[in-house]
């Protein structure tokens, strides 16, 4: 069996089973493949090992160039990924390498990336808990505290949480963001949204000197308003709400 070029361990990983053990009722684990083979050089790695070891456009083991140009002129780093679900050839790992390198240099922004994912998935409870946890986190100097609600992903086309919520058709998350980070009149919110905010212990801060989340443009100059205009459907009624 091939081994990881970084840690020299077999290309396997233990994962928890979805179902608990029938006898004892405790969670069990199983061993599954975890093999990333770079197409340019053939070196093998665990997924997390290649992400943590990548520092340039070269293989972290043999130093061969792994970044190539696709047929459309974009950069890519192709590999074959084998995991529990099987083998996926010609997988472009470059976006994941770039993301991990960025957050290794800016670890304080990992929480912000999680926030964007929660917005996209519509996980309102996770959004609320993340915001509360960060509010209770000591940050020094205070000027370095990140405004998570208005965070724009520097490696994801500068999209905000509201962009992400619209992308994921997460309407409840979008309402939450408007409540917390916009100047939209509270009279325009559904009663159930305001009740839920009260239940969660959420208060809208003074928005006078803060950017309205509806006014944040992504890297292509698109406002959340532009996204709902493009999507239509359930978002059609949001056109008036998202006028910045």
Question: Can you summarize this structure?
Answer:
With 244 residues, the chain is an alpha+beta fold. It has eight helices and eight strands, in the order E-E-E-E-H-E-E-E-E-H-H-H-H-H-H-H.
Structural class: alpha+beta
Q: Strand order of the main beta sheet, please? A: 4-3-7-8
Strand content: 5-15%
- So how many helices? 8
Order of helices and strands: EEEEHEEEEHHHHHHH
The largest sheet is: 4 strands, antiparallel
How much is the average pLDDT? 92
What general outline do the C-alpha atoms trace?
globular
Instruction: Let me know the number of strands.
Output: 8
Secondary structure: helix percent: 25-40%
Distance between the termini: 58 Å
Q: Which regions are unreliable across 5 or more consecutive residues at pLDDT < 50? A: none
Radius of gyration: 22 Å
